[in-house]
């Protein structure tokens, strides 16, 4: 069995192939947004927001999501600074991925998540729901925004 490390986007794309379900993750300190895409990688859909208490509980849930959806790869939002540099949050995300890879053995890559929360909130603007409800779904919608950006990249 092959063991994975954090992969560069083009290497990740080769590993997961052309037709595969991917999972998007918007990591946070209190909650983690999860999104999935269809096997044809056309549309990313918000899936779930997981409240973070213990990493092992998150990994257990993530493993179930991977199995239930037959996912072949994970795209994690990389919170880089607006000027393109990597700061402490980006390093925390890389540490988070290292911890995931100790327990999950599918390809993982990073994708620029700048403005994903803002984009997700704006995309929910036209929905007939109040702001507090939108905030409850912000993490999983941000994960979908991140994943959609990545699958658009793959499709072009």
Q: Which structural class do the helices and strands define? A: alpha/beta
Write down the domain tally.
Answer: 1
Number of helices: 6
CATH architecture: 2-Layer Sandwich
CATH topology: Nucleotidyltransferase, domain 5
Extended strand count: 6
* Helix percentage range: 40-55%
Rg (C-alpha, Å): 15 Å
Enumerate the strands of the largest sheet in spatial order, edge to edge or round the barrel: 1-6-5-2-3-4
CATH classification class: Alpha Beta
Query: CATH superfamily membership, which one?
Result: YqgF/RNase H-like domain
Shape: globular
Please indicate the percent range of residues in DSSP E strands (runs of 2 or more): 15-25%
Question: Could you name the key traits of this structure?
Answer:
156 residues; 6 helices; globular; 6 strands; six-stranded mixed β-sheet; Nucleotidyltransferase, domain 5; alpha/beta
Description:
By secondary structure, the chain is of the alpha/beta class. Helices cover 44% and strands 23% of the residues. The protein has 6 helices and 6 strands; from the N terminus they run E-H-E-E-E-H-E-H-E-H-H-H. The protein has helices at 9-16, 55-69, 88-101, 116-123, 131-136, 138-155, and strands spanning 6-7, 21-26, 31-37, 44-51, 71-78, 108-112. It has a 6-stranded mixed sheet, with helices on both faces. Helix 4 (116-123) crosses helix 6.
At a glance:
The chain has 156 residues and is an alpha/beta fold.
Produce the secondary structure layout.
Blueprint: E1 6-7, H1 9-16, E2 21-26, E3 31-37, E4 44-51, H2 55-69, E5 71-78, H3 88-101, E6 108-112, H4 116-123, H5 131-136, H6 138-155
Parallel strand pairs: 1-6, 2-5, 5-6
Antiparallel strand pairs: 2-3, 3-4
Helix pairs in contact: 4-6
């Amino acid at each position: 069995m092959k063991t994975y490390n954090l992969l560069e986007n083009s290497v990740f794309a080769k590993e997961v192939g052309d037709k595969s379900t991917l999972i998007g993750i918007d990591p946070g300190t209190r909650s983690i947004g999860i999104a999935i895409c269809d096997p044809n990688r056309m549309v990313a859909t918000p899936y779930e927001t997981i409240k973070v208490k213990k990493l092992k509980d998150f990994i257990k849930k993530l493993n179930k999501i991977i199995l239930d959806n037959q996912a072949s790869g994970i795209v994690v939002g990389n919170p880089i600074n607006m000027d393109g540099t990597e700061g402490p949050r980006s390093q925390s995300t890389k540490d988070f991925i290292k911890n995931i890879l100790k327990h999950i053995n599918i390809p993982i890559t990073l994708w620029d998540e700048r403005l994903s929360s803002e984009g997700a909130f704006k995309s929910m603007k036209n929905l007939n729901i109040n702001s507090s409800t939108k905030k409850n779904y912000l993490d999983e919608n941000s994960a979908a925004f991140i994943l959609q950006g990545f699958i658009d990249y793959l499709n072009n």
